[in-house]
Amino acid sequence: MKRLALAADLKARIARLLTVLDASQRDIVTLRAENLRATEVAEMLGVTPGYVRIAHHRALAKLRTVMAGAR
Asked: Which domain holds residue 23?
């Protein structure tokens, strides 16, 4: 039971953290977290793989900054 509560808490924290990203970055981070390659994500979103890689990098940098400030 405690394990489920911890999982739910972690899921809620991640969801709150993702709100700092714009919709496109959020989609890219979510899809990449599902182990999709940049080319697959690009095809799904109608953008270039280069755009996906850059947006993913910038989104992760933003999340790191936010997380560092929350400590």
From this structure: 2-69
For each successive 10 residues of the chain (71 residues), what is the average pLDDT?
Answer: 80 90 96 97 98 98 90 64
Amino acid at residue number 46: G
Helices (H), the chain: 2-18, 23-33, 38-45, 49-69
Task: Determine contact, residues 38/31, Cβ cutoff 8 Å.
Answer: no
DSSP character at residue 1:
-
Total number of domains constituting the chain? 1
pTM of the model: 0.83
Residue 45's domain is classified under what CATH number?
A: 1.10.10.10
